Amino acid sequence: MKILHIFPGKVWGGAEQYVLDLGSAMRAKGHTVDYVTRPSLAVTSRLEKSGENFRVLKFGGLLDRSTSGELRKILSDGRYDVVHIHDVKFVTPVARAIKRSGSATRLVLTRHIARASRTCILHRPYFRSLHKMIFVSGIACRKWREANRWFPAEGCTVIHNSIPDLLPEKADRPVRTRYGIAPDIPVFMFTGRVRRSKGCETILSALGSLKHRKWAMVFVGSCKPRDYQDRLMKQATELGIADRVHFYGYSSSARSLLGEAYAGLQPSIVREACPLSPMEFMQQEKCVITTDNGGQTEYITDGRNGILISPDNPELLAEAIGKILDHPDHTAEIGRRAAEHFNTHLCYSNFIDAVIVAYGTATSDRSTLPDVKSD
C-alpha cells in the first residue's frame, strides 16, 4: 500500500508526532509512506533529521490554484492508495484534487480534537467523499457528530491514540543527576508542551500546599510562550518551592526519563481528545494523575490504573498527590495495572492494525446519503 500523509500544523505537537510514528510503523510493515507539509521549520527540520521523503505545499486556501495543481500532479498517476489527512481544513482541497486527478485514491481523515465544530454546508459534499473518518476517542466522535448529524455513522470509526514501544535509545542526562535530587525524594514529572492549558500552574499551586512534604517537580518539554518558565518560576518563588521545581526543556528521548518518576502529573485544563502524555507514564508502569474532562476517562479507571480529578482544581490535585505519597505500595500497584492495561488495550500493534482496517474498509455508497439540507 502507498500512503501519503499531510501534516496538520506548523508546530510540532502530539498530532505531528502521531503522523510521523504512524508513517514509520507503516513503512516497517512494508508499505510506502511519503509526507506533505505546509512551510514550517518545526516540521521540515524533524522530517529532514529523520530522513523522510516529503514535499512542502503552501495550502493558501480554496482559491490557491498553485497548490491545487501540484496536488493533482502528485495524485494523477495513481501512485497513492491512501491520502491520510489530519485536519478538517484539508478535506476540501484534497478531495477536489483527488477528484480532478481522476485517481481512485482513498481519502482518510483523523480528527485529533474533541470539539463540536459545525461543517459549512458548502463543504459537506467533500466530507461525504471521505473513505473513513477516524476519531482518536469516543468523546471526539460524539462531539463532532452532535454538530454534524448529516454525516453517516458508518463513515466514522474510533481508534484510540497510542505510542510506539520504547526502543533502546541514548537517554539524556538523568534527572536526579542533573538536579542533584537525593534518592529518597519522590520525583513528580510532567511531559509535553509546558503551557497554562496543560495545568502547569495548577501543579505548582497544589505542590505549594504540600511544601512540608518531600518531593521534587520536573517539567519535561518546551514552554509556550517562551517566557512561560519565568512566570512559573515567579509563582514557585511566591509559594516558597522554587528550589524544588526544575525545567528540563525539550528532550527527544523524554520517555527514557520517566523511569525516574514517582508519578506523572498531567492535569490538563482543556478538554483533550486522547492525550498521549498520560499513556507515556502508563507504558512505563507509572501512576499518573490526570483530569476527567476528555478522552482520558476512556482508558483510565480512577483508582485502578490511574487517578482522575476535575480540571483546574489545585485542592483536589494536592489531595491526590498527598494520597499517593502516603501509600507508595498502592501507587506502585496502580502503575503495574496501568502498564497491563496499556499493553492489552492500547499497544501500538493494535493501533496499527485498526488503522489498516480503516484504510481498507469501504463506507456506504455516498449517493444514498441524506441530502445536505436534511438536518
Descriptive overview:
The chain has 375 residues and is of the alpha/beta class. 38% of the residues lie in helices and 15% in strands. It is built from 13 helices and 13 strands. A seven-stranded parallel sheet has the order 3-2-1-4-5-6-7, sandwiched between helices. A six-stranded parallel sheet has the order 10-9-8-11-12-13, sandwiched between helices. Strand 2, helix 2 and strand 3 form a beta-alpha-beta unit. The longest helix has 19 residues. The relative contact order is 0.11.
Topology record:
Layout: E1 2-6, H1 14-28, E2 32-37, H2 41-50, E3 54-56, H3 65-76, E4 82-85, H4 91-101, E5 106-111, H5 124-128, E6 132-135, H6 138-147, E7 156-158, H7 175-179, E8 187-191, H8 200-208, E9 216-220, H9 228-239, E10 245-249, E11 263-266, H10 277-283, E12 287-291, E13 307-309, H11 314-326, H12 328-346, H13 348-360
Parallel strand pairs: 1-2, 1-4, 2-3, 4-5, 5-6, 6-7, 8-9, 8-11, 9-10, 11-12, 12-13
Strand percent estimate: 15-25%
Biggest pleated sheet = 7 strands, parallel
Distance between the termini: 37 Å
Uncertain residue segments: 362-375
Give the helix/strand class. alpha/beta
Tell me the series of helices and strands, N- to C-terminal: EHEHEHEHEHEHEHEHEHEEHEEHHH
Helix content: 25-40%
What would you say about this model in short?
With 375 residues, the chain is α/β, with parallel strands linked by helices.
